[in-house]
Amino acid sequence: CSPAQCRRANASRRACLIARFNFIYAKDRLDAEICLKKFICDIEMVQRIIYVAALESFRAAKKAFWKVKIGVKATLAADHCGGPLSLECAVMNYIACHKELFDVCCCVREVVCALNVNPKLPCPSDVDFNVISCFIRELCSLAFLMQTLIPPLDVAFGIDGELFSRSMYYRSCDSDFTAPFVAYHVWPALMENGAVIVKGEVVTRK
């Protein structure tokens, strides 16, 4: 395909994926909270779990993407006649159109395992993170497809106690609006080449 067609396809996918990210934040995240609240009374812990699940989903999906990309690139390169830029575009379009290349179930299992061993999530032993597997599955699928964009989209990794950034985060409604530091993160910001595309959400307290 021509460079112009590549740009149009990339822009269209980008808009759809950003909209899907916003929908997961507005709907699926709250559904996941409801599922976890049946087992955990502490709303802060519930929100921490969902935030870590989002980060781990992107981490696992990015790792899976690079494995798929290596195989697809080797296959397409054998018959490719254009330059390296057009090959990259062809690889990205091929992966975006062949979602079955991504083993999302394996990715979900990896995220659940990561939640189980995370020292910042000291949950009761009877809590099964598989109750939010549908939420994790959606995030993994979204994160995988976001890697097919040029440039790719990713989430920002936040640290408790960091200085609150108005350009990167919204304050949660139960925040101390005079506090300058982040107590914990509710949702990650979406980034593109170091720039904030969609703000995340944090709780600030003194």
From TrEMBL:
GO terms, biological process: mitochondrial protein catabolic process; mitophagy by internal vacuole formation
InterPro entries: MIEAP, MIEAP_C
Domain (Mitochondria-eating protein C-terminal): residue spans on this chain: 13-204
Keywords attached to this entry: Coiled coil, Cytoplasm, Lipid-binding, Membrane, Mitochondrion, Mitochondrion outer membrane
Location of the protein in the cell: Cytoplasm; Mitochondrion matrix; Mitochondrion outer membrane
GO CC aspect terms: mitochondrial matrix; mitochondrial outer membrane
Top-rank taxon, per record: Eukaryota
Listed GO MF terms: lipid binding
Keyword Mitochondrion: yes
Similarity-based family: Belongs to the MIEAP family.
Name of the protein in its database record: Mitochondria-eating protein
